[in-house]
UniProtKB/TrEMBL annotation:
PROSITE patterns: GP_PDE. Residues 51-376 form the GP-PDE domain. It comes from Prauserella oleivorans. Keywords: Glycerol metabolism, Hydrolase, Signal. Residues 1-36 form the signal peptide. This is glycerophosphodiester phosphodiesterase. It catalyses: a sn-glycero-3-phosphodiester + H2O = an alcohol + sn-glycerol 3-phosphate + H(+). Belongs to the glycerophosphoryl diester phosphodiesterase family. PANTHER family: GLYCEROPHOSPHODIESTER PHOSPHODIESTERASE GDPD5-RELATED, GLYCEROPHOSPHORYL DIESTER PHOSPHODIESTERASE. InterPro entries: GP_PDE_dom, PLC-like_Pdiesterase_TIM-brl.
């Protein structure tokens, strides 16, 4: 599936999108407020058959991830959901970070008062050295500031280093409520429990706080615009007895759910994506979140091959399919769509979206939600 380099027209379109990022803060969006199932509201705002757009860690292509600024920009760009990954503080408060170790996304390493918190822990069986969210109270975490995770690939984002706090889940919900009112369409929450077994081992289980927070905000109901996702199985099964919102089983490109590893269950993610595995997922979850190589694998040189049957198999099992993660930089694109050897330069992500949306996936996790919105519109226009 090889294609030529970027066309002039596409380059112009990418430039316009980059420029529009600066203008988008002043825009408002139109659409319906959700009154039925979560995706009904989304489809009403973009058309009946449009894919769901999940802002991966916020608009993380434009702002340091998991900050209120990243989430707000994503909503203003047209994302249907903002995605907080969740970890726990020492005092049991859920905050938005991608992993327990916070040295990669905050300025904690530059804070002498926290130098003695640096330690090494086993996270899902692997040693990790740094500073860990569960070793800080919320008050302590609030003194830190977010920094860009991948400055070499996203140097523009580093101008925001040091400006934004680590948000709590409650603050993310409050932001979504405020923006829903302002934008006239409901902004959903797509929350992920990060390393559930690890946090149980640390004595800071994520699930009770998540259930409590959703309950407190009136969001534990079938028509709330909320998804809850996990790479592990046991905690989703447990949550399926407590939550009334749709659950999504994440499936990585390789490896196994860590709760399987910890309990001696020999099954891997490969076993979960068989038709039988997908039917098993459907007994406790409503969605399936595959790493995108599970949908269209790459060959040894990084080029896309033919789509697998996993989307059809998941649909046959009754599961919605939301694939991850779509990013504009060459570093992350299939070789087909890279614009140059510069890993930070943007390639033909529209072509990537076209290929993946054609497989029938129901949604995408996107670092650049504005591009995902445009790609979804293009797909719908092409169908008419
Ligand atoms: O949750 C979907 C996707 O975000 C999973 O990947 O590692 O970015 O949380 P990760
Ligand atoms: Ca995630």
């Amino acid at each position: 599936m090889k294609t030529s380099a970027l066309t002039t027209g596409l380059r112009q379109r990418l430039t316009l999108i980059a420029l529009s990022t600066l203008a988008v803060l002043g825009t408002t969006s139109v659409g319906s407020t959700a009154t039925a199932a979560p995706e009904s509201a989304v489809k009403a705002s973009r058309g009946e058959d449009g894919p769901v757009i999940v802002a991966h860690r916020g608009a993380s292509g434009y702002r340091p991830e998991h900050t209120l600024a990243a989430y707000e920009l994503a909503a203003r760009m047209g994302a249907d959901y903002i995605e907080p990954d969740l970890v726990s503080t020492a005092d049991g408060v859920l905050v938005a970070r991608h992993e327990p170790e916070i040295g990669g996304t905050t300025d904690v390493a530059e804070r002498p008062e926290f130098a003695d918190r640096k330690t090494t822990k086993l996270v899902d069986g692997k040693p990790v050295t740094g500073w860990f969210a569960e070793d800080f109270t919320l008050a302590e975490l609030k003194t830190l500031r977010a920094v860009e995770r991948i400055p070499d690939l996203r140097p523009s984002n580093t101008i925001y280093d040091g400006r934004f706090e680590i948000p709590t889940l409650q603050e993310v919900i409050d932001l979504a409520k405020r923006l829903s009112k302002e934008l006239g369409r409901e902004i959903g929450i797509y929350a992920e429990t990060k390393h559930p077994t690890y946090f149980q081992q640390q004595g800071r289980p994520l699930e009770p706080a998540l259930v409590r927070t959703l309950e407190r905000n009136g969001l534990n109901r079938p028509n709330a615009k909320v998804y809850v996702q996990s790479f592990e199985v046991a905690n989703l099964k447990q949550l399926s007895t407590q939550l009334r919102v749709p659950l999504v089983q994440l499936v990585d490109a390789s490896g196994a759910p860590y709760d399987f590893v910890a309990s001696g269950d020999p099954r891997t993610y490969d076993d979960l994506v068989t038709p039988e595995g997908l039917r098993e997922i459907a007994t406790y979850a409503q969605g399936f979140g595959p790493q995108k190589d599970r949908v269209i694998p790459r060959d040894a040189n990084g080029y896309l091959t033919e789509p697998t049957t996993v989307v059809d198999d998941a649909h046959a099992a009754g599961l919605t399919v939301h694939a991850w993660t779509f990013r504009a930089e060459n570093e992350f694109l299939p070789a087909d769509f890279r614009s140059s050897d510069d890993p930070a330069a943007w390639g033909d992500i529209f072509a990537e979206y076209e290929a993946f949306l054609a497989t029938g996936i129901d949604g995408v996790f996107a670092d650049h939600p504005d591009i995902a919105v445009e790609a979804a519109r293009a797909q719908q226009l092409a169908r008419r």
